[in-house]
Amino acid sequence: MNQRPVNQPHRRMTRAEVRRRRRSRTIRRVAGLTVAVCLFVGGLTVAVCLFMGGAAFLLNRHAPVLSANAASAPAEDAENSLLPAASSTVEETNGNALGLTADEAAAMLADPLMVLVNHTNKMPDDYTFETKECGSKTAVNKTLQTVACDAFLEMQKAAAAENVTIWMQSGYRSVKYQTGLYERKTKYYTDQGYDLATAKEKAAAVVNPPGYSEHNCGLAADLNGPEHTGLDEGFENTTAFRWLCEHAADYGFILRYPKGAEAQTEITYEPWHWRYVGVENARKISASGLCFEDYIAQLHTLAG
Q1: Annotated catalytic residue, options 104, 214, 236, 270
Q2: What is the pLDDT of residue 85?
Q3: Is 270 a catalytic residue?
């Protein structure tokens, strides 16, 4: 006779087993939820993709085909819109050493104070001006153009305030007076045994022919001082010359025949010979490091 099995009492699970069971249930629930979410999102994504693809297809059926250049244009326009607008002034000034535009160069050339007078450029016949006296007691030619005279007196006063004495020894010369200087210098060389043509050429390297001297336009000043009263290269060793090199441009004067520029000026180095061109012009010329001939040549190039 079969007997009913006697019910065995349930074994109580250990705490570790309880924790494992709970963890297992939690994992199963999370996995189930994850699968459900993925199925939902996937279905939605497929629906969206199908919708967008259909719309794109319909649009492209009627859209014109862009060339490669046209297709890249929007990107290029976007890039260009980020760049600053090009300035014609910057383009003009970046390409030249003077940093001037063509209009600025033309304006400087038109300035009467910038007149170029040398061996090959005669003072214009219609170049007229007023003069004013500013020479020292021993000056041979005591006047300059009025504007140059006023500038020299201001410069002289500023130098004196720093205990530097500057004299204006020779300024405006008439063409007649210049003729006498040139003829005497020519005679000096003929007396040395040179033929007349050679004597005139050598004289012109020291004294410009009549009408071809800056002194004829009243803008050139031969300067000296008590340290050195001669008009020769000894003047460069004076306090006055050093002061002029540092400050003259601020009063409108430039060293007209600098050392090392003899090939361009065709005049030997003259530390005593200063030329008035106006304050702004003088500062620009001094900053360029060019002699007057080279600066004028570059202005002509820029002005066209």
Answers
A1: 270
A2: 40
A3: yes
